[in-house]
Specification:
Strands 3-4-2-5-1-6-7 form a seven-stranded mixed β-sheet. It has one domain: Rossmann fold. α1 packs across α12. Helices cover 44% and strands 14% of the residues. With 263 residues, it is of the alpha/beta class.
């Protein structure tokens, strides 16, 4: 059994902080000495831009060195890995062509398991401690692929009046994925963009605490302008300004994720 653990970051609600959470957790894990591979599964290529400037990200999108080519041609994911410049942290870039991934998957044999098969060799080698997958804000065949390839699911939820919208659909979709991948577990819900001064933050917290059978991570991510400055510089905030409030919060959240994934 490979020691490599695969964690998906998913929520069908846009703006929930999936990419930012995935990016910073990956960077924090690497800083803790873990070997990490991140996979950008979203056509918006924001995870890729978290580590590369736009020109470099678009070059990967155009030259085939991306997740779309790997899935369409059903190739070993190792052939599409690039170094991020952060020690111990690699990435499989994305491409805007991921907008057509549902069509690409439609005619494939066992189409829900294509990504899992592409990851088999990398997992078997056990080089990476963790593989983190950033998902698009949808619930379809590609996200089903991501869930079926994963051991754990982290659900980032924005602490806003609409942040909980569609969460029930997310849980139902996860249950459907478990019919194909029964070992998939929801690792927990991570609250993002929290503003403790707002009444709706407390309401969000109380509602999520009452959700049966789902862990709510103790460490949440508060609103911090350092995150936007980091994104503008194509870096996760953990690398851009490690002393910032949000960087410390992401590091603490990462420690929680590692703890629960290793129980």
């Amino acid at each position: 059994m490979s020691k490599t653990k695969v964690i998906a970051f998913a929520n069908n609600k846009g703006g929930s902080g999936k990419t930012t959470t995935c990016s910073n957790v990956g960077c924090a894990m690497a800083a803790m000495g873990k070997k990490v591979l991140m996979i950008d599964g979203d056509m918006q290529i924001n995870l890729t831009i978290s580590y590369f400037n736009e020109d470099q990200a678009l070059e990967y999108a155009q030259n085939g060195k991306n997740i779309h080519t790997a899935i369409k041609e059903e190739k070993d994911i190792a052939d599409f890995v690039v170094e991020t410049g952060v020690e111990g942290l690699d990435l499989v870039p994305s491409s805007p062509l991921m907008s057509g991934i549902e069509f690409d998957l439609f005619g494939k044999w066992q189409r829900e398991l294509v990504l899992k098969k592409c990851l088999e060799r990398v997992r078997a080698k056990g080089y990476y401690d963790y593989i983190l997958i950033d998902s698009p804000p949808t619930l379809g065949g590609w996200v089903m692929n991501i869930m079926c390839a994963s051991d754990y699911l982290v659900i980032p939820v924005e602490a806003s009046p609409w942040g909980l919208f569609g969460l029930a659909n997310m849980f139902e979709f996860c249950n459907q994925a478990k019919n194909i991948a029964p070992n998939l577990k929801i690792l927990g819900i991570a609250i993002t963009k929290a503003d403790e001064r707002k009444k709706y933050f407390k309401q969000t917290l109380e509602t999520l605490k009452e959700t049966d059978g789902v862990r709510l991570f103790e460490n949440y991510i508060r609103v911090d302008s350092a995150v936007e400055w980091a994104q503008d510089n194509s870096k996760p905030v953990v690398a851009y300004k490690k002393t910032s409030r949000s960087a410390v919060e992401y590091i603490n959240l990462t420690k929680e994720i590692i703890e629960y994934a290793n129980r």
